[in-house]
């Protein structure tokens, strides 16, 4: 069943159709959210909130763009809003992860080094300008083609390519500096 057919069914009150739509897009939404929040539990929670918002707002979807484009826009906006709300919470969770990991083949020092490296990567991604970060997350985490990213971001493919090049250059410089 197509997205459009599912949407008609959902608006008509068919909750099974919404479950189908959610299962179809849940992993993609989760990966995008994870690209912003970097914490699995937060990403899982926000993924659920995205689908609640989608359900509440589905009547406003008119099909001018693909459903996936509309869904990505909602996901990106909610991710950015959540990111602004919980920067301190993410830091505390990172520290908790370091000190409360289960058994591992790695020594505590190796775990700390890995966590520090992960933190540096997350910080470098988070430090990108918003449009570059958005393009980067959609490209790297979602593996979307530039054409689809351009549609989601209301940009030309050339503009998306420039955003990705700049993002990659900034990340490379940031992660290579001592």
Query: Which percent range describes the beta-strand content?
Result: under 5%
N-to-C terminal Cα separation, in Å? 52 Å
Q: Percent range for helical residues?
A: over 70%
CATH topology of the largest domain: Rna Polymerase Sigma Factor, Chain: A
Which CATH class of the largest domain?
Mainly Alpha
Query: Unreliable runs, pLDDT <50, ≥5 residues?
Result: none
Task: Look at the helices and sheets and give the structural class.
Answer: mainly alpha
Total beta strands: 0
Order of SSEs? HHHHHHHHH
What does this structure look like?
By secondary structure, the protein is mainly α. It starts with a helix and ends with a helix. The relative contact order is 0.10. The chain has helices at residues 3-11, 15-37, 40-57, 67-85, 87-99, 108-126, 130-140, 146-153, 157-176. Helix 2 crosses helix 3, helix 4 packs across helix 8 (146-153) and helix 7 crosses helix 9 (157-176). The protein folds into 2 domains: 1-85, RNA polymerase sigma factor, region 2, helix turn helix motif (Rna Polymerase Sigma Factor, Chain: A, Orthogonal Bundle), CATH 1.10.1740.10; 127-178, Arc Repressor Mutant, subunit A, CATH 1.10.10. It contains 9 helices and no strands.
